[in-house]
User: What shape does this take?
Amino acid sequence: MRVRLAVPEDATAIAAIYNEGIDERIATFETRHRRPEDVRCWIGRRYPVVIVEDDEGPVAFAAALPYSSEEWFAGVAEAIVFVSRRGRRRRAGHLALEALIQECRKAGFWKLVGRMFPENVASRALVAALGFREVGIHRFHGKLDGEWKDVLVVERIIRENL
Assistant: This one.
């Protein structure tokens, strides 16, 4: 598998991978499918987006998104990772998040934060393997399909940028 920075032409693949996660209801509160134009604006900004692809095309992506508009949080980004069904159990998520951490280091970020459903065991294992620590759980943080969900908060300090 290969890892690279995303380009605008990857928006269709990123949206498709993200939509699989939306449909499965294990990784996001989102319920509305994303269109390529919804995610194209993520690409080519200060916040990196990486793609993992095999010979058939993209199988995972990781993106850094703005954490806050406040200037004192300029070095903090929210990290998201989504892996297609085809890319699971092949280390695609690991490769994507590992590359995102390196790209965020290069871009000057000093911290990545993430939020996930506590029952998402695969995501918890992934972030732990790459040095994220569990900060805590927001109880009753939002509703998904009418059911209250908790959210686990994780963080990874990029010490080189402190």
Remarks:
- Helices lie at 11-24, 36-40, 92-106, 121-129.
- The mean pLDDT is 97.
- The beta strands are 2-5, 49-54, 57-66, 76-83, 111-116, 133-144, 147-157.
